[in-house]
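G., the chain you wanted modeled:
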Amino acid sequence: MSDSSDKVSGKYFKKGSQSEPQQDPGIAPKPILELDPDCAAAWFYKGNGLHSMGRFEEALDCFEKALALDPHNAAVWTNKGVSLTKLGRNKEAMYCCDKALALDPRNAGAWFNKGTSLGGLGCNKEALDCFEKALALDPGDTATWFNKGSSLGGLGCNKEALDCFDKALELGLHDAHIWTNKGNSLDNLGRYEEAIDCWDKALELDPRNVDAWNNKGNSLATLGRFEEALDCCDKALELDPRNVDAWSNKALAEDVLSHWQEAARSYQQFLILDPSQQYAKQIEHAHKRLRELGDK
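Predicted structure as tokens:
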């Protein structure tokens, strides 16, 4: 864009919990529970099944019943933390992970989940320590390499983050999020063409990935390819009309292309969405340009 300081950076994603339950959705335990409602293992497996179905609140109820019967079971504490993480209740999830680790310090899943919760709270340095402990116990886990890279990216350690994403890819993790995050790191290192290649791979896997469209537009604009950047912003906004990043970037691209009326509308739409204070520079720039465009 015309002023790189106004550019909205890409976000780093983190994977969900490592210890995702593997059992079929809470069917098998039902007869056991009918016979013996005091069977902790049956509540545990039913909780796993409900979690697998995305019914996290119900899964929590099951894990709590299991823990009432067997409070020293590290696996139940771990999976309770998994469901809490999915619900965005990161502080409670960390408590569960700590309980699991007190019972089993070599529980790689609990270290991973604690790191994921810390990352969700913006504590990337502390999260990184947890992911390193998880990898010491399970060096082949792709999700842990991914999240370690995401934490490093959040700390601005882009070369190290790139190494982690490449390791995860080498181990077989291929989804839109890893290509999006690898693109973020390459973009932050000034390797814009390579970043665009990564976002193209992400979009092949998930054409509805709003962040990949938006981030690709950022890099295209940095390379002076503003018409293509504008197309990417429009794609992002088709998918998410309230995306403040896309409206800000669309306005900047239109501004550079001298599409004054369109730029003014896009700046106004960006401000109407009431962006948070993390967009302070973009908000200031939008107000400034609207005043200047009003004089044209």
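Residues 1-10, 17-28 have pLDDT under 50 and may be disordered.

Shout if anything looks off.
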